[in-house]
UniProtKB/TrEMBL annotation, chain A:
Species name: Breznakibacter xylanolyticus
ATP-grasp domain sequence ranges: 121-318
Key words, A-Z: ATP-binding, Biotin, Ligase, Nucleotide-binding
Domain Biotin carboxylation, residue spans: 1-447
Source taxon at top rank: Bacteria
Gene3D superfamilies in the cross-refs: ATP-grasp fold, B domain
InterPro entries in the cross-refs: ATP-grasp, BC-like_N, Biotin_carboxylase_complex, Biotin_carboxylation_dom, Biotin_COase_C, CPAse_ATP-bd, PreATP-grasp_dom_sf, Rudment_hybrid_motif
GO function terms (MF aspect): ATP binding; ligase activity; metal ion binding
Name listed for the protein in its UniProt record: Acetyl-CoA carboxylase biotin carboxylase subunit
Family matches, as PANTHER family: CARBOXYLASE:PYRUVATE/ACETYL-COA/PROPIONYL-COA CARBOXYLASE, METHYLCROTONOYL-COA CARBOXYLASE SUBUNIT ALPHA, MITOCHONDRIAL-RELATED
UniProtKB/TrEMBL annotation, chain B:
Stated name of the protein: Biotin-dependent enzyme
Lineage: superkingdom: Bacteria
InterPro entries recorded: Biotin_BS, Biotin_Carboxyl_Carrier/Decarb, Biotin_lipoyl, Single_hybrid_motif
Organism: Breznakibacter xylanolyticus
Domain Lipoyl-binding: 106-175
Keywords recorded for this protein, A-Z: Biotin
Lineage: Bacteria, Pseudomonadati, Bacteroidota, Bacteroidia, Marinilabiliales
PROSITE patterns: BIOTIN, BIOTINYL_LIPOYL
Length: 494, 175
């Protein structure tokens, strides 16, 4: 078993990893950066190592050389990359292998194969997993793209082969838009990923986004831990997730799970991974991509299966056999996760910054709150806006939605604007409650993205009025002294 | 709304941006009446850093995000409310000005009363939104923030901090 772990990440996921590692008796090391030298995650680790001063302009948690050097210099056995940053970077896995550090994740060749979308599609296609129609492989010019698009019919989506995070991606509704959008996608891909290759795929209008959690050890054991429903998205960013998915029947779940496991087998997968699917309105599912890391939304799976996914990652990286088999995995009840982001929902989800002046957490045995912030934390523009995750687990979906709403009402953060009122609006939304929603929920179906509690407006005005009255004592003594009749006259003469 | 009630109560009107205008009569520094309901308020800074507004013994976590003169941004349950607190006089004046501005396509900000400009917040060619503060005018011993009632581009600023203006002097033009 691994004895020490360097956590090459920050925020709530660094704390999350440290918690499991500590429970397993593993020594944890966190990395302190000059951008947030007093961040909360540093208090979760046994040791804190200052990131060395370098002339490099690479962000700290993307600096492969420095991170591996820290592990070597401190005799740390393994590196956990968390999500984002280097978690799907095959070069880190390579570098670890070359220097004798354990990378907690899949082998470099698996990361590479799944990271390149064209290769991933090829492997998935050979494994018999349903694919949306499209160009087989990259299209090198507008003519080839047009040909592929006409074969499958519009709308189509142009995607960067090396893509991720919505970059290098364009939806094309009409043939005449294609040349312009093709060039845009290709040049964006070149800038973002240093690789201009793009491919064309059938674009599904308003699908559901459902993903399957798989886990595989180095001894050929591969199981799945069921699905997560991630259709509450804004601009391809997930905001709320749930498990199980209200869209799946046991038969469909079994089919999708089988497809995910088959893909994992086809690439000789090892470690924790997620196969993302799109589900269309006819309940047909299509392979989208595979993520070779722990996901932000992993807690909903943990809540309903009772399995600690970080523990599995560490055990597999240590060379152990999976401690559970498929028959041990049961989905119990319903879990919902709300991402608490520092964003101003009323201003189009603009990133918000500030100092956390106070925070009140919801209470309950069914509540899990994974936070990267505490009172006094700075929310800066250096990092992404996700501050914390609220996860609620109940026996049924209906109860879970109700309990999530109550928990959101108990959660108060002072000092920075958050997505709490938005999450409440989703919990209150009819379509979400019905379970029959898809990725168009936020951008097309929801009329009000902010939930207002009863009497909120009068409470806000009372605060303004009482503050004003105290600050303007002198003025307030004059307020009633003008005769209304005189006042009207004075106004008219202005 | 009848803001000129017969009794001699002090009045304040809270104007909520894209919301309602709510009139309160001020009983004392803590007690306000709105639509015959009395609200007893107390603002508490808590030990855990939170701010609580007690209203008739109910505790509500709140936050004053910003205060500019009589303009407040207030958060209740994470929802922002932009509120300007007006006296009956400033309320009527704003209403009247808004009516005038709606008639013409371009907004000319004139001095509503003789006074002295304390601060100018905008400059020529700057884009402004409705409700943005343009300048602070001291008149009748009160500081008034003059706001844009419509979105547009600042075409001209004819005053600077310290300028003394007469009634109807043009201060800012928005096109």
């Amino acid at each position: 078993m691994i004895q020490s772990i360097l956590i090459a990440n920050r925020g709530e996921i660094a704390i999350r990893i440290a918690q499991t590692a500590k429970r397993m008796g593993i020594t944890t090391y966190a990395i302190r950066t000059a951008k947030e030298p007093e961040a909360l995650y540093l208090s979760a680790a046994d040791h804190v190592i200052n990131f060395p001063n370098t002339d490099s302009t690479i962000p700290e948690f993307l600096d492969i050389e420095s991170i591996v050097a820290i592990a070597k210099a401190n005799g740390i056995e393994a590196i956990h990359p968390g999500y984002g940053y280097l978690s799907e970077n095959a070069l880190l896995a390579d570098h670890c292998q070359q220097t004798g550090v354990i990378f907690i994740g899949p082998p470099a060749n698996v990361i590479r194969a799944m990271g390149d979308k064209i290769t991933a599609k090829e492997i998935a296609g050979k494994a018999g997993i349903p694919m949306p129609g499209g160009s087989n492989g990259a299209v090198s010019n507008v003519e080839a793209a047009t040909q592929a698009a006409q074969k499958i019919g519009f709308p189509v989506i142009i995607k960067a082969s090396a893509g991720g995070g919505g970059r290098g991606m364009r939806i094309v509704h009409k043939a005449k838009e294609l040349p312009r959008l093709f060039n845009e996608a290709s040049s964006e891909a070149l800038r973002a990923f240093n690789d201009p290759s793009v491919f064309v795929e059938k674009y599904l209008v308003s699908p559901k986004h459902i993903e399957m959690q798989v886990v595989a050890d180095a001894h050929g054991n591969i199981i799945h831990l069921g699905e997560r429903e991630c259709s509450v998205q804004r601009k391809h960013q997930k905001l709320i997730e749930e498990a199980p998915s209200p869209a799946l029947t046991p038969a469909l779940r079994a089919q999708m799970a089988e497809a995910a496991v088959n893909l994992a087998k086809a690439v000789n997968y090892q470690s924790l991974g997620t196969v993302e699917f799109l589900l269309d309105k006819d309940n047909k599912f299509y392979f989208m991509e595979m993520n070779t890391r722990i996901q932000v939304e992993h807690p909903v799976t943990e809540m309903i299966t009772g399995v600690d996914l970080v523990e599995l990652q560490i055990r597999i990286a240590s060379g152990e056999k999976l401690p559970i088999c498929q028959a041990d995995v049961k989905q119990n009840g319903w879990a919902i996760e709300c991402r608490i982001n520092a964003e101003d929902v009323q201003s189009g989800f603009a990133p918000a910054t500030g100092t956390i002046k106070g925070i009140r957490f919801p209470q309950g045995n069914h509540i899990r709150f994974d936070t990267g912030i505490a009172r006094g934390s700075e929310v800066t523009p250096h990092f992404d806006s996700m501050m914390a995750k609220l996860i609620v687990h109940k026996a049924s979906r209906k109860d879970a939605i109700k309990a999530t709403m109550t928990a959101l009402q108990q959660l108060h953060i002072k000092g920075v604007k958050t997505t709490i009122p938005f999450c409440k609006a989703v919990m209150d939304n009819k379509l979400f409650k019905s379970g029959n929603y898809n990725t168009s929920l936020i951008e097309e179906q929801m009329t009000d993205l902010v939930y207002r509690e009863e009497d909120e407006e009068i409470l806000a005005t009372l605060l303004a009025i009482s503050h004003y009255t105290r600050e303007h004592e002198q003025v307030s003594s004059e307020m009633g002294s003008i005769d209304p009749w005189v006042l009207k006259k004075r106004l008219k003469s202005l | 709304m009848n803001i000129f009630s017969k009794n001699k109560d002090k009045k304040l009107i809270a104007r909520v941006k894209s919301g309602k205008d709510l009139a309160f009569s001020v009983q004392n520094k803590q007690e306000f009446v709105h639509k015959r309901k009395t609200y007893n308020t107390l603002l508490i800074e808590e030990l855990d850093g939170m701010t609580t507004l007690m209203v008739n013994n109910e505790r509500i976590p709140v936050e004053i995000v910003s205060i500019k003169q009589n303009e407040y941004e207030i958060m209740v349950n994470g929802v922002s409310y932009f509120i300007s607190v007006e006296t009956p006089f400033s309320y009527e004046r704003k209403k009247m000005l808004e009516k005038q501005q709606q008639k013409s396509g371009k907004e000319v900000i004139k001095a509503p009363i003789p006074g002295k400009v304390l601060e100018v917040m905008v400059q020529k060619d700057q884009a402004v939104n409705a409700g943005d503060a343009l300048l602070v005018l001291e008149a009748m011993k009160m500081q008034n923030t003059i706001c844009a009632s419509r979105a547009g581009i600042v075409k001209n600023v004819t005053v600077t901090a310290g300028s003394v203006v007469s009634k109807d002097d043009v201060m800012v033009e928005i096109g």
